[in-house]
Amino acid sequence: MNFSSPTKATLNSSTLRVALAIIYQEDRFLMQLRDDLPHIAFPGHWGLFGGHLESGETPEEGFKRELIEEINYQVPNPVLFRIQQEPEIIRYFYHSPLTVPLEQLELQEGMDLGLVPLDAIEQGKYYSQKIQQVRPLGSVHRTILLDFFESYLQ
Fold it and tell me: Which CATH number fits domain 8-153: 3.40.50.1820, 3.90.79.10, 3.40.50.300, 2.60.120.10?
């Protein structure tokens, strides 16, 4: 995986672009238990909130839009953490602290949400109170959260 800025030569109309949210309170990270649908990435896994960028949308605009659509949360000052480039996808990871209680968020997409502690991220799985099951973390999401924790929160 390449963690640098994408060049114009690598961007084309078929390159998928997504913005993802690293939202945290202390050493817990806000995550979404994704719907268990086979046509989506990481079905039934814990993952970061965010999604595909719309045509003409900047990554930061997409990041903000996705959080409003998914949990009705306006991020005050997102900061770009990393750009992760693969042959068919570019992921823009932004971070920001969660400034409201978890109960104030309105889950509009996914099966559950939670503030996942670092030990669960290290283990790669987390229990959902809502569906009363342990579910795995998406591998990309787990890796970036561990890196973020090591880079910023230690």
Answer: 3.90.79.10
